[in-house]
Design a protein that fits this description.
alpha/beta, 3-stranded parallel β-sheet, disordered C terminus
Length: 165
């Protein structure tokens, strides 16, 4: 996200366009766009809806009186953003590849159970369907309809840590 989002505790806007993660991700995605046999489907973040919210456990502590407003810290807040427009694009791509028999294998980098029907369809059409959830847990419904799960998340995190040193 390349927008500013108001942080209620700091009482200032946070400029995500200058954040190291944004800069790295932008460069990473630009590099991916140049790779052969790779379809990159990008949606958009609903930046107008991006807000900092109090974490649920902090709200409970505030309501039961075990924490006061004056004791709030930055770690008591989490950034809430919604990604739009990606699931449908990817689902249609998977269906198109499957019905046209244009791929032998699909690697989906996601753990979203919304992709279960697309994964099931691809496998029914004979495509080897691999899932990389990037270290996140995967719903059993999706796991039932993939041929394998491989995650490079921890290796990638180690590589990134070594770059920063």
């Amino acid at each position: 996200m390349d927008k500013n989002v108001f942080h209620p505790l700091k009482r200032t806007s946070v400029n995500f366009k200058k954040h190291p993660t944004y800069l790295w991700m932008r460069e990473f995605l630009e590099t991916l766009k140049t790779k052969r046999k790779l379809a990159l489907r990008l949606g958009f973040l609903a930046a107008d809806e991006a807000v900092y919210n109090l974490k649920p456990d902090v709200v409970k502590k505030l309501l039961n009186g075990s924490k006061g407003l004056s004791n709030l810290t930055e770690s008591d807040f989490s950034l809430s953003m919604l990604q739009k427009g990606v699931d449908m694009k990817i689902g249609l791509d998977i269906a198109s590849l499957a019905y046209k028999h244009q791929a032998d294998q699909i690697v989906l980098v996601s753990g979203d159970s919304d992709f279960t029907p697309a994964a099931k369809l691809a496998r029914q059409e004979g495509i080897d369907f691999i899932l990389d959830p990037m270290g996140h847990p995967v719903n059993d419904f999706l796991l039932e309809h993939v041929d394998g799960v491989r995650s490079y998340h921890s290796r990638m995190a180690v590589d990134l840590m070594n770059e920063e040193c």
